[in-house]
Amino acid sequence: MTAALNRIVVGVDGAEPGRAAVRWAAACAAERGLGLLIVHALHVEQRAYGGGLAGPAPWFDVLAADGRRILDEAVEAAGAAVPGVRVDTLMPTDSPVAILVDVSKSAAMVVIGGTGKGFFGEMTIGSTASAIIAHAHCPVVVLRGRKGTTNYPDTGPVVVGVDGSPLSEKALAAAFEEASRRKASLVAVHAWSDVTYDDVYGMARLVTQWESIEGDERRLLAQRLAGWQEKYPDVAVERSLVRDRPRQVLLEWSAKARLVVVGSRGRGGFTGLLLGSTSQALAHHAECPVMVVRPRPAR
């Protein structure tokens, strides 16, 4: 962790899922010795002047007052959950996407609620969530709870999707760190039936017997895990090698996990995870928080 990455960022909208996200992010920040930045975007460009407001100044004053109330409630929620946590607030007039992507440059993590209202309300079900995950400069955590609630589990394993891509390696690093911090076991999921064998191994691979392919994929998974298991000997690891779509496997594990970790894109079965059906399924239906690991641009 560099000195610049000294905070966790969380977006709020005034709804309970946002306050629950603040409590989760505050605990995460305190555990890491980091500060917490709470962001509420006024999103002025999408507001209208109607509704009996007298003009631009009164209209903005009402909007800003409501924003300050939302931030005050969020700060109170953070302090109640983790007394003494360092909290800053930010209330920009820009789009929440633009500001969260910008502040992610100096953040260790961006946290957004899995449900909500207002301008953050579509964050996990539409273009806003996809944009943040697509452009953030740090890992993004979408907080999903059991059966669509804000009951974020604190038991169960950390589950990570493994496909052998460079971002999958970053996801493994993050998953092992999270499992170690939480004193949790780790489940490494490799859905090998979707791997594009003609791209990776050549056309001859297409006629190889499934048993041989499975053996190769099992060795690939073992190789990817070996170094991390040596670095984190305290983390018990379970390997899950399956002939299935990663979306279905990860969703099933999310009902038992405390956190699912994936790279923002990969090869084979995890290609398209960022904006495709797998990411959408996790954002809509996962029953635990989902961490999407992003590549951090070189400075």
UniProtKB/TrEMBL annotation:
Transmembrane segments: none annotated. Keywords: ATP-binding, Nucleotide-binding. GO terms for molecular function: ATP binding. Residues 6-144, 157-294 form the UspA domain. Belongs to the universal stress protein A family. This is Universal stress protein.
